[in-house]
């Protein structure tokens, strides 16, 4: 559990219970078995992904920077077993796991827009998210949460207004996230041809950069027109619920579709375990285990991060001790909504205490 009060210095916060996130990252990195992955063939030699009857060409160029394509080419190889359904178990897992990334990244962006993050590394979540795409979310999501808690000033040193997210920015992030993250993810796993799936696997890479460039371009153009919109004029709670509603519906739909239609036991799909003989010791078998470990680390550290943020809010009276201790009970909706939608609902629940509904304000 977190200590009774957050340390005031960055060094103190770094050597507090926040270290649990670095432990999670280290454990995830160990069980991902990256040395084992590098020791086996990734089945993409000679410009083709080849396994059994599946033989699909691998793109060699996509971006203008050649060195970047070399890196991304190897990363896209990791998605090949699932998008081509060579490993159908992995396909069922990834349609749940990867779609959850988009709203989680939106939450990161929301958190970064709070005035209290100004001037800190917590202001730039795209840096760690981009690294996570190349090196594993299971390792770098927990590291991001650690850095966020260390460099973000504790709520005890800020005013209530400093805790609000910028709703005017949020209206840009939703369509950009749907365009550059969610749509490519769906195409990766549901497009009718393997060539299309492979193309969108490339397109999905660097979605953080695409969102960032487009966001700053639009903001710059809007400033030239002199138009501005203050998020303070909007109903805080209602706006957040509307922004995340499409994601909650989509995530829940894919979760229910997966658990009711997969021909495999849920334990086989989502829990790292013994790999069947056909894939044991192969790139495909090791990749399945890596992605399962990845998902557990990403989701586990994300839920823990929300609990730490709630605990931080309790020290300025935004959250009572009873509300803090009951917050983890929201995990009970996990079987119904799935991991990603549960994360979003818990974050929205937390925001109820940052800026209460107008009806709540009147009662106070």
Topology:
Blueprint: H1 10-14, H2 20-32, H3 34-39, E1 48-51, E2 54-57, H4 66-77, H5 80-83, H6 88-97, H7 101-112, H8 125-135, H9 137-151, H10 167-190, H11 194-204, H12 207-225, H13 236-261, H14 266-270, H15 283-313, H16 321-326, H17 334-337, H18 339-351, H19 358-363
Antiparallel strand pairs: 1-2
Helix pairs in contact: 2-9, 2-15, 6-13, 6-15, 7-10, 7-18, 8-9, 8-12, 9-15, 10-11, 10-12, 10-13, 13-18, 15-18
What report would you give on this structure?
The protein is an all-alpha fold and 364 residues long. 64% of the residues lie in helices and 2% in strands. The protein contains 19 helices and two strands. Strands 1-2 form a two-stranded antiparallel ribbon. β1 and β2 form a beta hairpin. α6 (88-97) packs parallel to α15 (283-313), α7 (101-112) runs parallel beside α18 (339-351) and α10 (167-190) runs antiparallel to α11. Keywords: Membrane, Transmembrane, Transmembrane helix. The chain crosses the membrane at residues 12-32, 91-110, 131-151, 171-190, 202-224, 244-260, 293-311, 323-349.
């Amino acid at each position: 559990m977190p200590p009774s009060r957050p340390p005031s210095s960055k060094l103190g916060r770094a050597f507090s219970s926040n270290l649990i996130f670095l432990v999670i990252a280290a454990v995830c990195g160990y069980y991902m078995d990256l040395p084992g992955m590098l020791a086996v063939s990734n089945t993409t030699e000679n410009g083709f992904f080849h396994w059994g009857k599946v033989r699909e060409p691998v793109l060699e160029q996509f971006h203008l920077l050649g060195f970047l394509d070399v890196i991304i080419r190897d990363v896209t190889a990791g998605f090949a077993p699932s998008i081509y359904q060579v490993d159908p178990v992995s396909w069922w897992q990834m349609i749940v796991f990867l779609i959850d990334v988009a709203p989680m990244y939106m939450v990161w962006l929301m958190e970064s827009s709070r005035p209290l993050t100004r001037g800190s590394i917590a202001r730039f979540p795209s840096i760690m998210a981009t690294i996570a795409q190349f090196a594993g979310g299971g390792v770098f999501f927990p590291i991001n949460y650690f850095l966020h808690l260390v460099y973000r000033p504790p709520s005890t040193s800020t005013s209530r207004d400093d805790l609000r997210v910028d709703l005017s920015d949020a209206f840009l992030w939703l369509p950009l996230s749907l365009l550059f993250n969610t749509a490519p993810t769906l195409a990766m796993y549901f497009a009718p041809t393997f060539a299309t799936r492979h193309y969108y696997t490339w397109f999905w890479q660097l979605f953080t950069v695409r969102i960032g460039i487009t966001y700053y371009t639009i903001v710059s153009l809007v400033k030239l027109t002199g138009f501005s919109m203050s998020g303070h004029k909007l109903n805080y709670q209602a706006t957040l619920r509307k922004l995340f509603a499409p994601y909650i519906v989509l995530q829940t739909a894919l979760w229910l579709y997966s658990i009711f239609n997969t021909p495999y036991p849920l334990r086989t799909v989502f829990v790292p375990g013994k790999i069947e003989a056909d894939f044991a010791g192969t790139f495909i078998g090791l990749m399945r285990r890596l992605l399962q470990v990845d998902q557990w680390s990403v989701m586990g550290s994300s839920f823990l991060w929300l609990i730490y943020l709630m605990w931080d809010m309790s020290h300025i009276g935004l959250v009572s001790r009873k509300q803090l201790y009951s917050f983890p009970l929201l995990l009970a909706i996990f079987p119904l909504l799935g991991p990603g939608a549960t994360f979003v609902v818990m974050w929205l629940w937390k925001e109820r205490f940052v800026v209460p509904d107008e009806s709540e304000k009147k009662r106070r």
